[in-house]
Amino acid sequence: MLFLATGLVSCRSTGDVAYREPAEPEIRFPIFNYHHVSPLPTNASPARVTFTVTPEMLEQQLKYLKEHGYRSVPLDVLTSCFDHGTPIPPKAVAITFDDGWRDQHEYAFPLLKKYGFTAAFFVPVGWIGHPNVMPWSELHEMADAGMAIGTHGVKHLHFDQIGEPLLKKEIVDSKAEMEDTLGHPVLFIAYPGGHWTPQAVAVVRSAGYVAALGVDHLIIQSKGHRYDVRRFHAGNDMASIMNPLAESGY
């Protein structure tokens, strides 16, 4: 059994050493999360500024990851580590996008392809059809190119503010509609705003999702948090990418 300097157990690949299930499986695996990718509007609100990365900055971030040997992997690599102890490849990261904004297809999708990265896009299905949100045709295009598509509820309601009937609609109905339209299983959901409750987790589990993603600004993942997978907010600066990697020695 291998321990990190911090005393945490790692599921990362360790060369010739056979992996054994740790007593407390905690895994170093950074997940970076984005929202808008676009030029910043001149009249942008504080929230839009916070949740926007310019195409130029995203390219710098992806170029940095590429040049430093990082590679993106799908989220099921993490759940496979949870369930089977499958080692996560060295320097593996995951990239995610929330809200389904159309600028993600316009700006982020070409850059991901340019640098050889994949990502998961989480979309509120009730927003599809709005001119600022990716239509089904663009989601199909990205899925065909190797991107993962997951749900972000129906109307982006915060799950800690609604009762069970609405939770089931947001969690169960969004999954069914996305699966019917895209034609493949949808196994991951991202909590709108990162908000969840034990009741929401119970609905997520019963609906058949294998994991759910929150936002906790930690590089450590664990089985006990498979329905609150930790992600970092990627900002419009290099520090939001470089600092978590450097501070964790990843």
* Structural category: alpha/beta
* Helix percentage: 25-40%
Tell me the name of the CATH homologous superfamily.
Glycoside hydrolase/deacetylase
The radius of gyration is 18 Å
CATH topology: TIM Barrel
User: How far is it from the N-terminal to the C-terminal residue, by CA?
Assistant: 19 Å
The level-1 CATH class: Alpha Beta
Give the low-pLDDT segments. 1-24
Provide structural commentary.
The chain has helices spanning 46-50, 55-67, 76-84, 102-115, 136-144, 164-182, 198-207, 239-248, and strands spanning 26-28, 31-34, 36-37, 52-53, 71-72, 92-98, 120-123, 148-151, 188-190, 211-213, 220-222, 232-233. It is an alpha/beta fold and 250 residues long. It has one domain (26-248): Glycoside hydrolase/deacetylase (TIM Barrel, Alpha-Beta Barrel). Strand 7 (120-123), helix 5 and strand 8 (148-151) form a beta-alpha-beta unit. The two termini are 19 Å apart. 36% of the residues are buried. The model is unreliable at 1-24 (pLDDT under 50).
Compact description:
With 250 residues, the protein is an alpha/beta fold. Helix content is 36%, strand content 16%.
Secondary structure layout plus pairing:
Layout: E1 26-28, E2 31-34, E3 36-37, H1 46-50, E4 52-53, H2 55-67, E5 71-72, H3 76-84, E6 92-98, H4 102-115, E7 120-123, H5 136-144, E8 148-151, H6 164-182, E9 188-190, H7 198-207, E10 211-213, E11 220-222, E12 232-233, H8 239-248
Parallel strand pairs: 2-6, 2-12, 3-4, 5-6, 6-7, 7-8, 9-10
Antiparallel strand pairs: 1-11
